[in-house]
Amino acid sequence: MDRSLNLLDLALGFDEQLSDPSPLSGKVVLIEDCVETSGSFVLHQLMKRVLSPHSSDSLIFLAFARPFSHYDRILRKLGCNLATQKTNNRLVFVDMLMMKCSDGEETKDDVSAVAKLFREIQGTVRKLRSVTNSNITVMVDDMSLLEIAATNSNSDHVLDFLHYCHTLTSESNCSLVILNHEDIYSSMERPAFLLQMVCLADVVIKAEPLASGLANDVHGQLTVVNKGISRNSGKGSSRNKLQNFQFRIKENGIEYFYPGCRS
User: Which Pfam families does UniProt cross-reference here (predicted)?
Assistant: First the structure.
């Protein structure tokens, strides 16, 4: 086993990397979190893995939540320089905070604005495909903010965008990684795009607080449901399909461990 692999890597199927170096190719990964326990660190860990110097994969990152400087600062602590990755054309960072999903003069045509955003992503995928055969990952941080960014705040537009991006997994074999705050809609009926995300996801990673309450040396727990890992193993087994482990966030990384097994 590769000593650099952690429990999250193993739950995602990277233990099969000898036969499949990109087990998430063509798959949808949904990260769900809540106010009490942020799942952003999972996104950062996946960013680091995609941009690893040991791979030639590329990343298209849609940032609805925070500016480039935020991610650059965090990834530097993890040993990854995002500015260098942009220069090397391995990272395409789309700062949605500096853009509008729809023109001020065309607020009534918000659906076409979402389609326009997807066409830009699709065009970027094609450009990257023209120079590399490596895996391309599209990340969204976070999907719930797309509804706010859209002029008319219509969840149907988010559903449209989700379906647009899902076509990239089947047509271009891209990976799609989405962060969403599950508890935002806890006081109302869950919109269709939330249910659809869970349905489309090959992997669901849920960050939650400890059931026993707060602990100084444990910051929360992850539940990973990997619907496709049995296909990756080629053995027809469903081992590791569901994993549950705890984590501790450190200054320069994350420590993962099973309950009661932390050294």
Answer: ELP6
How many degrees, rounded to 5, is the angle at CA 156 between CA 29 and CA 91? 40
Spell out the domains of the chain, with CATH numbers in brackets.
Answer: 7-257 (3.40.50.300)
| Beta strand spans in 97-211 (E) | 136-141, 175-181, 203-208
Q: Where are the beta strands (DSSP E) in 127-168?
A: 136-141
Which among 97, 71, 74 has a CA at the least distance from the CA of 86?
71
How far is it, in rounded angstroms, from Cα 138 to Cα 224? 20
pTM: 0.88
> Predicted confidence band at 53 (pLDDT cuts at 50, 70, 90)?
very high
Q: Is the dihedral of CA 151, 154, 155, 161 positive or negative?
A: negative
Q: Which two tokens stand for residue 163?
A: 């379906």
Distance CA 24, CA 209 (A): 26
Measured distance CA(84)–CA(91) in Å, rounded: 9
> What's the pLDDT band for 192 if we cut at 50, 70, 90?
confident
Residues 127, 60 contacting (CB under 8 angstroms): no
